[in-house]
Amino acid sequence: MSNVKKNYTEAELNNMNNDELAALGTQLDGVTVAFRKERFPVEGDPAEKRASANIIIWLVLSVLGGLAFLGVYLFWPWEYKSLGEDGLWWHTLYTPLLGITSFVAICALGIAIVQYVKRILPEEISVQRRHDGPSDEVDRRTLTALLNDSWKTSTLGRRTTIKGLLGGAGVLFGLTVIAPLGGTVRNPWKVRHDLDYSGDGTLWTSGWTLANEGVKLYLARDTSTIAEMHDGESGSHYSTKGLARLVRVRAEDLAAGGMETVFPLAEQDVNDGDKWSKDKEVYENHMHSIHGNRNAVMLIRLRHSDAQKAIEREGQEDFHYGDYYAYSKICTHIGCPTSLYEAQTNRILCPCHQSQFDALHYGKPVFGPAARALPQLPITVDEEGYLVAQGNFIEPVGPAFWERKS
Ligand code: FES
User: Fold this and answer.
1) Does 352 contact ligand 1 (Cβ within 6 A)?
2) What number is the average pLDDT over the span 85-108?
3) Which of 298, 327, 330, 333, when mutated, tests ligand 1's pocket best, judged by the most ligand atoms within 8 Å of its CB?
4) How many helices (H) and strands (E) would you count in the chain?
5) What spacing in Å lies between the alpha carbon of 337 and ligand 1's midpoint?
6) pLDDT surpasses 80 at 233
């Protein structure tokens, strides 16, 4: 290294051709080429053609795999199908096909590259000494020359088929990585369907929003009831007819210091108590309510002595019914269920990142990363003694998003 001239004028560098600059670059970098042998020194060697054809096959396979992946991703029926529904078989193939096609695209591309390096590029063993410090002008110029030299020795420039296929396979490989991210892009303002137990598709609606349309909504508990076996004329079969997964909650159902998770239950879907009928089929709607993203609410009955100390938020003074308070169960940090209620301290705890909310202080956060109070659902009791929503939440439920004012 020491006897390599390091300082070159611009004119000297301009006078060197690419090979000379490349050779200088290896010297300056302390690289010694210990061994170098062209794979096919004679142009038109049949062995070279065979090697090239082999690589082309792998690249074509990779391109086909990439195209197949995109085709499956964009056009295969992916919507959820339940047992017995039409199209279930096709739907079950969706994920395996994504896996198989991306595997083919990525593996075939990898094999093609390895084959290219092993069968086309010159065999070479180089040794480089390590050195410190930044690169100077001569290093940068010689590095460019070396890269040019690598491009030349790779012979990719004259192998247009392989070059094109390699580019195509590379782009498709990139798309197989990027395209699935498209599924996470959603327009949060778009109303996707009529208002139902899941809201209307926007972030600020839920099953409780039905109250805005005058629907009477009961606070209902999940009984975990499942389909029952029935004997009929056509044989035995499971049926949910006459069953209620959700049942209405009465004020006296909850002991002081207790907490219960409740979901919205529209009046027309009630199938318990005096409204029970063996022929009513409401089970599916109950499940929709339970599965509604923002529907879960914690109904808390404070101990009476504690309730005397409760501080109401302005505008929410009449949201509670006596000692009963209903707070959204969806954490205002990033949306975990705030499942834990500690009756001694009246604190609600989110197990995800340990945010704590004060049930005596309108669900205000008192510890952890959550910055907003849990939205409070206005509740009361109807003439039959069942707990019902007095209206919708007055603010969006769950984590913050850009339109939120509160
Ligand atoms: S989601 Fe509740 S603390 Fe993070």
Assistant:
1) yes
2) 92
3) 333
4) 9, 15
5) 8
6) no
Does the Cβ of 336 fall within 6 Å of ligand 1? yes
Closest CA relative to residue 250, chosen from 208, 276, 274, 219 = 219
Orientation angle between helical segments 137-154 and 18-28, nearest 10 degrees: 120
Query: Phi, psi (5° rounding) for residue 285?
Result: -65, -35
Q: What is the pLDDT of residue 52?
A: 92
Q: How many CA atoms lie within 13 A of 286 on its CB side?
A: 28
What spacing in Å lies between the alpha carbon of 309 and ligand 1's midpoint?
26
DSSP readout, 207-231?
GGGGGGGT--EEEEEE-----EEEE
How far apart, in whole angstroms, are the C-alpha atoms of residue 359 and residue 347?
Answer: 6
Q: Is 333 in the pocket of ligand 1 (CB under 6 A)?
A: yes
Q: Which of 45-54, 81-90, 116-125, 368-377 has the lowest mean pLDDT?
A: 81-90
| Pocket lining: 49 vs ligand 1, CB cutoff 6 Å | no
Answer whether residue 330 shows pLDDT above 50. Answer: yes
Q: Are 311 and 325 in contact (CB under 8 A)?
A: no
What number does the ligand 1 atom closest to the CA of 355 have? 3
CA separation for the pair 18, 148 (Å, rounded): 8
CB of 350 sitting under 6 A from ligand 1: yes
> CB of 368 closer than 6 A to ligand 1?
yes
The CATH code of the domain at 207-226+239-389 is: 2.102.10.10
Query: Measuring from atom 4 of ligand 1, which residue has the nearest CA?
Result: 353
Phi and psi, residue 170, nearest 5°:
-65, -45
Give 403's pLDDT tier (boundaries 50, 70, 90): low
- In which residue ranges of the chain is CATH 2.102.10.10 found? 207-226+239-389
C-alpha of residue 272 to centroid of ligand 1, in Å: 35
Q: pLDDT > 90: what percent of the chain?
A: 60
- Residues 294 and 204: their CA atoms lie apart, in Å, by 9
Q: ∠ CA(277), CA(244), CA(236), 5° rounding?
A: 80
What is 291-359 written as a DSSP string?
A: H-TT--EEEEE--HHHHTT--PPTT-TTSSBTTEEEEESB-TTT--B--EEETTTTEEE-TTT--EEET
